[in-house]
Design goal:
The complex is a heterotrimer of chains A (316), B (253) and C (95). Chain A has 316 residues and is mostly helical. Chain A is built from 13 helices and two strands; from the N terminus they run H-H-H-H-H-H-H-H-H-H-E-E-H-H-H. Helices cover 69% and strands 2% of the residues of chain A. The longest helix of chain A has 29 residues, at 144-172. By secondary structure, chain B is an all-alpha fold. Chain B has a single domain (2-247), classed as Ferritin (Up-down Bundle), CATH 1.20.1260.10. Chain B is 68% helix and 0% strand. Chain B is built from ten helices and no strands. Helices cover 18% and strands 22% of the residues of chain C. A three-stranded antiparallel beta sheet of chain C has the order 2-1-3, covered by helices on one side. In chain C, strand 1 and strand 2 (21-28) form a beta hairpin. Chain C is elongated. Chain C starts with 7 loop residues before the first strand and ends in a 23-residue tail after the last helix. Classes of the chains: A mainly alpha (316), B mainly alpha (253), C alpha+beta (95). Chains in contact: A-B, A-C, B-C.
Chain lengths: 316, 253, 95
């Protein structure tokens, strides 16, 4: 029976028919999705922190409202993704517990510090740019609720990268100090950004199955290459130098070659030893714990009000 | 004539600074709210407030002329030139303080817009017409939170009563008119703060009653923000907010 | 330590007058009022709507996926329900 179900399931996937929450699915498909979607959701809400750090210091009012709206969008994206994951049978609170205990992972890039205003530009341009590379194909992912959430995310995300690039553009047209600030931000964010796509394909054990299930639609290396290819011209337009001496056009491949990623650093950050892992996690845990009495009170009040309404019905 | 213009500028800046400083305070919550949905909700309010402040700063900058801009208004005035009331610069402390501060301001802000819709100053009238829609929602949102938390659990009730007790002494300042407010009222530009005070009190009492919270006995009220005599918080708020403009004078961002 | 989670709600938005409310996603809220406001704050930030419905997710009843064939396939061959089934002269233009 199980085998037949699995065949029907794979057949649907091959035909690009979306899987919906109540449809039969292999347990491993459910688990893989749950892990991927919740990690994605966690990345959105942890990702609020490095940029949220600069909201009160944004250099002018136009930038302040744009940054606020952007960070708020990330909360929204987290929310859409948690909702999608909830359809697979895990509550948002359970997912948050996994985040807070350190069991669940989130994108390693958010464990780097935002030191200057230019970091808001670099994050929007590079980190959101890399995220978009990842996310656009996910709009066609095989699980319906995930795909729908991603359509919403991508629609909203489209202003994020433009916002970041515009910040960079303004800086590179500015004073020497501003240009230096922009170059410094690119220097610090470049390598973490291209690491964001995850380990090389030959070192990414779950990828093949995920591709077969169309949870993932392109491999890590394909996406990384695509990102590098489009970003080089964007950096040139800014007059900034990508900090990779091995970066050069390869006529034969039709792609840019680029230098080796420091995977030791990447895995250290994933393991919790990045410059800001502890602060990021603490900020999330604090927000959650400090908000507990608020959530409890709202529940208590709702229950009281419902009881009151019921009493009135009975009395009538 | 020039003097009237200065008074109008002072008045517009007072209106702008109120929403700006509260917006700046609320913005500190972004990413740290008690639940995702409310993080988003508060940020919406923050964006409304800063949006309103921008319209007012732009107006003040035009009145002032020269090379004034919304940003020079927000980022290049020092503490004693800021005209917001003391309540709005108080620390966030926790969700109870934040909601209580928001509620006190929302009720005031709403009735203020109600008055400014009839301002003889066309520009203020236009801004008020837009703002009143926003503040109608803000009052609803913060009133519901007052009630929910006041009448929620024992813990939440206590936290709310404490916040109320601590912040109450900063509410009177709304209704103590500064020189420019008096002059603006006479000219039919500004609001009648006495009339506003009665409406404010009545709405606040109504909500607090439902929230099972009580107004503290002490009647002493702090003042000073409107004339630039701020609390020590204000210096830190501006240090944060104005850091970039001060560190890199005349740069474009 | 762990507290009761706020219930899950499904959100439906009418994009503009004249259109149906359409399911857009879900959220958590402690009560009905908060659910509508959260829906406003989360799902209409970009002028997406003029009206909101919320319903607690537990009140949604759904058809069984396993009954999909029995429920929906019998409609497949009733092509006479569609206008294209009928052959009419071209001269008739619009009918």
């Amino acid at each position: 029976m199980e085998i037949k179900l699995e065949e029907i399931f794979q057949d649907k996937i091959d035909q690009e028919i979306k899987i919906e929450p109540r449809d039969w699915m292999p347990e491993k498909y459910r688990k893989t999705l749950l892990r991927q979607i919740s990690q994605h959701a966690h990345s959105e809400i942890v990702g609020m922190l490095p940029e949220g750090n600069w909201i009160t210091r944004a250099p002018n009012l136009r930038r302040k409202v744009a940054l606020l709206a952007k960070v708020q969008d990330e909360a929204g994206h987290g929310l859409y993704l948690y909702s999608a994951a909830e359809t697979l049978g895990m509550s948002r609170d359970e997912m948050l517990e996994e985040l807070h205990s350190g069991k669940a992972k989130y994108s390693s890039i958010f464990n780097y510090p935002t030191l200057t205003w230019a970091d808001m530009g670099a994050i929007g341009w590079l980190v959101d740019g890399a995220a978009i590379m990842n996310q656009v194909p996910l709009c066609r992912t095989s699980y319906g609720p995930y795909a729908r959430a991603m359509v919403r995310v991508c629609k909203e995300e489209s202003f994020h990268q433009r916002q970041g690039y515009e910040i960079m553009l303004t800086l590179t047209k500015g004073s020497e100090a501003q240009k230096a600030m922009a170059q410094d931000a690119l220097n610090r964010w470049w390598w973490p950004s291209i690491s964001m796509f995850g380990p090389n394909d030959d070192n990414s054990p779950n990828s093949a199955q995920s591709m077969k299930w169309k949870i993932k639609r392109f491999s890590n290396d394909e996406l990384r290459q695509k990102f590098v290819d489009v970003t080089v011209a964007q950096a040139e337009l800014l007059g900034l130098t990508i900090p990779d001496k091995d970066l050069k056009w390869n006529e034969e491949r039709g792609h840019y070659d680029f230098g080796a990623i420091n995977w030791d650093e990447f895995f250290q950050v994933v393991a919790g030893n990045g410059p800001c892992n502890k602060q990021r996690l603490k900020a999330r845990v604090d927000a959650w714990e400090n908000g507990a009495w608020v959530r409890e009170a709202a529940t208590a009040y709702a229950e009281k009000r419902e009881a009151k309404a019921n009493n009135q019905i009975e009395a009538a | 004539m020039a003097e009237t213009k200065d008074i109008l500028i002072d008045y517009v800046l007072h209106l702008a600074d109120n929403s700006m400083i509260l917006g700046q305070r609320n913005a500190e919550w972004c990413g740290h709210g008690p639940v995702l949905e409310q993080d988003i909700a508060l940020t919406n309010i923050t964006l409304d407030l800063i949006g309103e402040a921008r319209s007012l700063y732009q107006y003040a900058a035009e009145l002032k002329g020269g090379d004034s801009t919304e940003d020079s208004m927000a980022f290049l005035r020092d503490v004693t030139q800021y005209r917001n009331t003391l309540l709005l610069e108080q620390n966030n402390t926790d969700w109870a303080y934040t909601i209580t501060r928001q509620f006190f301001y929302d009720v005031f802000h709403y009735y203020l817009q109600e008055a400014l819709i009839n301002s003889s100053d066309e520009r203020l009238k236009e801004i008020a017409k837009k703002t009143i829609k926003e503040s109608t929602y803000h009052v609803k949102w913060s009133s519901e939170w007052m009630i929910r938390l006041g009448d929620g659990t024992e813990v939440s009730h206590l936290k709310m009563q404490n916040a109320l007790n601590a912040l109450w002494e900063y509410t009177g300042e709304f209704f103590i008119p500064s020189t420019s407010e008096m002059e603006m009222q006479e000219k039919g530009i500004g609001a009648d703060l006495n009339a506003l005070s009665i409406k404010w009190r009545s709405k606040v009492e109504e909500i607090l009653k439902e929230a099972t919270l009580s107004i503290p006995e002490s009647s002493f009220q702090q003042k000073g923000g409107k004339t630039g005599m701020h609390s020590e918080h204000m210096g830190y708020i501006l240090a944060d907010m104005q850091y970039m403009q001060r560190a890199y004078p005349r740069a474009e961002w | 330590m762990s507290t009761k989670e706020w219930p899950l709600w499904e959100v439906f938005i009418r994009a503009k007058q004249g259109l149906n409310h359409k399911h857009v996603g879900s959220l958590h809220a402690a009560d009905l009022q908060m659910a509508i406001e959260n829906a406003r704050d989360v799902y209409t930030r970009r002028m997406e709507g003029v009206s909101i419905w919320v319903v607690e997710s537990k009140h949604i009843h759904a058809s069984e996926p396993s009954e999909q064939e029995a429920l929906f396939e019998p409609a497949n061959d009733k092509i006479y329900r569609h206008p294209t089934f009928y052959n009419l002269p071209v001269e008739l233009n619009h009918m």
